TrEMBL record, chain A:
Belongs to the ABC transporter superfamily. Residues 3-230 form the ABC transporter domain. One of its GO terms (molecular function) is ATP hydrolysis activity. SMART domains: AAA. It comes from Syntrophomonas zehnderi OL-4. One of its GO terms (cellular component) is membrane protein complex. InterPro entries: AAA+_ATPase, ABC_transporter-like_ATP-bd, ABC_transporter-like_CS, MacB-like_ATP-bd, P-loop_NTPase. This is ABC transporter-like. Signal peptide: none annotated. Pfam families: ABC_tran. Keywords: ATP-binding, Nucleotide-binding, Transport.
Length: 232, 746
């Protein structure tokens, strides 16, 4: 199993009260698969993804990624884990506005041991002509493509996408999902996506429905739907 | 009231920025109030002392006695015969004794009483340094005197033996005043007439008229010293002038820095609060109310900074004035304060800062509320430089740091300007020290290969005493400007006592007419030029052709072979006026007019350099504080503006060191550039200052900055920078990763 999450718990203190965000979540995902975590706002899906991404710490339970128990890693080791193994795609792209497209990608390749060529990933996302442009000069879809290019340039084992289509229009969003599917097939990258858009679940090998910090349903798709055919 | 609470809370959230601005303003107002009021007090003390004690406009010597009453009546002036005599008190300790004057240059009694028979008044510093209390006995020129009190002389306020010495060592030189009757018994006395015009305008013209009158009577003027060129007096108005300039320049620079800083802070804050401003509009707030709200920031900063600074300035004025009175002893006056200047020191920064901020606020408030509420009116625009930069070939870290700098040009300019100012402050003291060091080591010590210079009262002929070397000298003035005077010196052509070199460092002998560099610079002379002068003793005009310029800053001289000098001045070929020696010599009374000890001059320089120490350390400390405020604020701004990027980098797996290197060190280029620009800016400023002071100092100082001081300055600037970065590291460490994850979610 590439990702194994076992009985993961996480709570936050809100003043004097304790807010349990994850109440014993368990899931598994095979290498090269696409997983989708579905859930409404406040269900704990972003927290779950942050812990899997090594950005946040769990209170209890464990997360294994590619055989490494990341919940047991200290801060430095977690930094190495994020640096070498995980790519992030954000809802609002999080591009650095005063860097060009190519430079935004270099932010990551600069610290990666086995980074892909910037031009190669730009070609993969169809933005080779825009490498000298600044984010402000790009459309939302193009910015998200840059964000994906930046995430895959380090050739990560795991790509974590937080509402990757949340800020995009319908057509652009479908194009983006196609791109993710292509990356998954071309590079064999395991992708874990967080969304509240149920329609997206069709392209996933595994879908986890999260509600109030608990997985209420896990669906396995033996056949996945091509992103272009997804409608919502 | 609720909005006012927001002002206070916003300021507390960004304490460093606002406290930094207040500190800069405090320094600005403090410097202005202190320097301008000290200047006023010093000027008043000097004016009062000059008038009450009838400071002469000129002192002169002639070859015969003149009728002081007739000259006085003819030129509506006071003329009184007095004199000085340099007397040895102990070996290596000299006292310049003045004859008590009653009409012009009247001494003031600081403590004790005027000197009567067998009594002497001393200057306090000499007396206290050497343990002469009032009532004690002192032996001057072999005669015992009782110290009757401490005196202050209007024509010798800055106690220094000669212009070459620059700063006095009170253990070796002081002044005393005795009655005229006692004075007339002293050996080696030198009579001097003191002249003060009753009409206080056009002094120079009146002086010329007196000189012309004396010459028309066949009287030879052997020396003429205008008071405004006499360093013992002219240093005081010079200090007043310097303080006046400082009182304007330094506060203006600080105010400018604060304006840029606060302007940037306000611009960023208002931009960041555009949604809030839009909401305020929607809630029914008027532009006027919002303008008033945002004006509270500069108002509070400038009011607190200016008021505290002015109060500190008032407190420091008294200390500064008293300190200056120890360097320039004058009768103590009550410290006065110009209330209008203090009001100005408070209101000017408030007006300027509020004005600048008002412009910025008005610009933002013109944007419609609906657009402001979207919060997207001012997306980070890509400026022209950012667009045009082609950085593909550079390493990512370099690219990133360059992009950080061009992202906010106002921020980079502020930092650059701040580092230039800090560099100038740090290196100002070092430059002064380098200049004096250069004058001492590459000037005095290098040029003079002797220990003592004795000048006789009359020309001698024949062979000089064994172990000595003869020279001749004439004090000449320019024909077209008799205020410009210098010595023409005749030496043996193969002399080893005076060592000169050309601009490339090759030794040159005075086998031809050689002018020293300060004189060449002052008169704009180069080889082949002619200089026409008249001898102050015989009044005859002579023209000399400059054949070489010697690269030495030891004084303003024209050297020539002794035989040529004697021929030129109509003297026997073996005539000489003085000798140079390595050993102290004794002569019969009345034979020697003056003695110069090179060691004393060197000691004077050493004393000056020692005195510079506190000034240099003070300037370095001030520069460190100013630099630290500026660099800390700018680095803090970079961190603030890069919060999302820093958070993102943490998510991407950047290590602390890597983030610090990228974000905190992004200003390194600007800091280094600021330092490099600060050096020529400083050398230019100091050069202009030296030139403006050359007439008063009677010395042309070379503008020099030792390489090691430059390096030390660089180390101090970089240490300040590193310290500021260290202080900002915590800020970087505190930025959480989830900030990047939440972007756009609020």
């Amino acid at each position: 199993m590439f990702i194994t999450v076992e009985n993961l718990k996480k709570s936050y203190l809100m003043g004097e009260s304790k807010n349990e965000v994850l109440k014993g979540v368990s899931l598994t995902l095979e290498k090269g698969e696409i997983g989708v975590i579905l859930g409404p706002s406040g269900s704990g899906k972003s927290t779950l993804m942050n812990i899997i991404g090594g950005v946040d710490h769990a209170d209890s339970g464990s997360v294994h990624v590619d055989g490494v128990e990341i919940t047991a890693l200290d801060d430095d080791a977690l930094t190495d884990y994020r640096r070498n193994s995980v790519g992030f795609v954000f809802q609002f792209y999080n591009l650095i506005p005063n860097l060009t497209v190519a430079e935004n990608i270099e932010v990551v390749s600069n610290i990666s041991k086995s980074a892909l060529n910037t031009d190669t990933v730009l070609e993969a996302v169809g933005l080779e002509e825009k490498k000298r442009s600044f984010p402000k000069q790009l459309s939302g879809g193009e910015q998200q493509r840059v964000s994906i290019a930046r995430a895959i340039v380090k050739n990560p084992k795991l790509l974590l996408c937080d509402e990757p289509t949340g800020a995009l229009d319908y057509e652009t969003a479908r194009g983006m999902l196609s791109l993710l599917q292509k990356i998954n097939s071309d590079f064999g990258t395991t992708i874990l996506m967080v969304t509240h858009n149920t329609a997206i679940s069709g392209m996933a090998n595994k879908v986890y429905k999260l509600r109030d910090g608990e997985i209420v349903e896990t669906i396995r798709h033996d056949e996945t739907v091509a992103a272009e055919r997804i409608e919502w | 009231m609720a909005l006012f609470k927001k002002v206070i809370r916003s300021m507390l959230e960004h304490k460093a920025h606002y406290i930094g601005s207040m500190l800069l303003l405090m320094i600005s107002s403090m410097m202005f109030v202190m320097a301008s009021n000290t200047s006023i007090n010093l000027e008043k003390a000097f004016k009062t002392f000059s008038e009450q004690n009838v400071l002469s406009d000129a002192e002169f010597s002639v070859d015969t006695e003149i009728d002081t009453t007739a000259i006085g009546e003819k030129f509506n002036a006071k003329v009184e015969l007095g004199g000085t005599a340099d007397c040895e008190v102990k070996p290596g300790q000299k006292l310049r004794v003045f004859a008590m004057m009653n009409e012009v240059n009247i001494p003031a009694v600081e403590e004790g009483s005027l000197s009567g028979a067998s009594e002497i008044m001393l200057n306090r510093l000499f007396a206290e340094t050497n343990g002469y209390g009032i009532g004690d006995t002192i032996t001057v020129a072999g005669k015992e005197f009782t110290v009757s009190g401490y005196c202050l002389l209007p024509n010798f306020i800055y106690v220094v033996e000669s212009k070459e010495v620059m700063m006095n060592d009170p253990s070796t030189f002081g002044v005393g005043v005795i009655s005229k009757a006692e004075f007339n018994t002293l050996p080696d006395r030198h009579y001097v007439y003191a002249l003060r015009f009753n009409e206080r305008d056009n002094i120079q013209t009146q002086e010329t008229a007196v000189k012309t009158e004396l010459r028309s009577q066949g009287i030879t003027i052997t020396s003429w010293q205008s008071t405004d060129k006499k360093i013992n007096v002219s240093y005081v108005p010079m200090e007043v002038g310097v303080l006046s300039k400082v009182s304007v320049a330094v506060p203006l620079v600080m105010l400018l820095l604060t304006c840029v800083l606060l302007g940037m802070l306000m611009w960023r804050m208002i931009k960041g609060e555009s949604v809030l401003i839009g909401t305020f509009y929607a809630l029914g707030y008027r532009r006027k109310a919002l303008r008033r709200h945002y004006l509270m920031f500069p108002l509070l900063v400038s009011a607190i900074g200016a008021v505290v600074g002015s109060v500190l300035g008032i407190l420091l004025t008294d200390l500064m004035f008293k300190f200056l009175l120890t360097a320039f002893p004058m009768p103590v006056q009550e410290t006065i304060y110009n209330n209008w200047l203090i009001v100005f020191a408070v209101l000017f920064p408030i007006t300027v800062l509020c004005g600048v901020t008002l412009g910025i606020i008005s610009k933002v408030l013109r944007i419609p509320a609906a657009i402001l509420m979207k919060g997207r009116e001012s997306p980070k625009k890509i400026n022209l430089i950012e667009r045009k930069l082609r950085l593909e070939r550079l390493k990512f870290n370099t690219k990133f740091q360059i992009r950080e700098q061009v992202r906010s040009l106002s921020r980079s300019f502020f930092l650059l300007f701040g580092v230039v100012v800090a560099t100038m402050l740090i290196l100002y003291g070092f430059t002064m020290k380098s200049s004096v060091d250069y004058m001492l080591h590459k000037g005095i010590k290098e040029m003079y290969n002797l220990k003592y210079e004795y000048v006789f009262t009359s020309v001698k002929t024949g062979v000089p005493p064994t172990g000595t070397e003869q020279f001749n000298a004439a004090y000449v003035s320019l024909v077209e400007n008799d205020d410009t005077s210098f010595y023409v010196v005749g030496t043996l052509p193969d002399t080893e006592r005076i060592r000169l070199k050309d601009s490339s460092g090759r030794p040159i002998k005075p086998e031809q007419n050689i002018v020293t560099l300060p004189l060449a610079q002052k008169l704009n002379l180069k080889p082949g030029d002619r200089v026409t002068v008249f001898n102050t003793e015989d009044g005859k005009e002579r023209t000399f052709i400059v054949e070489q310029v010697a690269d030495t800053y030891a004084g303003e001289f024209l050297f020539m072979p002794l035989d040529r000098f004697n021929t030129e001045f109509g003297l026997p070929t073996n005539a000489y006026i003085g000798i140079w020696s390595d050993e102290p010599l004794t002569f019969p009374q009345g034979e020697v007019q003056s003695t110069k000890s090179i060691d004393a001059i060197v000691a004077g320089f050493g004393h000056l350099i020692d005195q510079m120490g506190p000034m240099i350390y003070g300037l370095i400390f001030a520069a460190f504080i100013v630099g630290l405020i500026i660099i800390y604020i700018v680095t803090g701004l970079v961190v603030e503006e890069s919060r999302a990027n820093i958070s993102l980098m943490k998510v991407f797996g950047y290590r602390k060191k890597e983030i610090n290197r990228l974000i905190l060190s992004s200003n390194t280029i600007i800091v280094i550039l600021g330092y490099l620009l600060g050096i020529p800016a400083l050398l230019g400023t100091v050069g202009a200052l030296y030139n403006s002071l050359a007439d008063t100092l009677q010395v042309v100082l070379p503008v020099k900055l030792n390489f090691w001081y430059m390096l030390l300055g660089f180390v101090i600037v970089m240490l300040t920078y590193e310290f500021a970065k260290l202080m900002c590291r915590k800020k970087v460490a505190r930025i959480p990763m989830d900030e990047a994850l939440k972007v756009g979610m609020e």
